[in-house]
Amino acid sequence: MNKIIISILIIVVVALVIAFIQMNPRVSGKEQSCIDSGGTVRMSLCCMSTDDFPNMCLIGACGCSPENSHEVKVCDCPEGKCFDGNSCT
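Now predict its structure.
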């Protein structure tokens, strides 16, 4: 009987840990920098060669046609600022 209770408790604890991890995903360094500097993380179509959180202060990273683009995470900064790859400036 005790083995059954211990097994059930282990299953419940593992399920709770998995649920907690899924509800609180890890935030990347650039994602946290975006948030800390006043920006909002969103998805956007950018050129195929562009990775997450491109320098939005430069023209070009997200200027390709839709068929030559893919979705990446970008930092949407407050008005008058742009994400330079590290923070909203």
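The mean pLDDT is 89.
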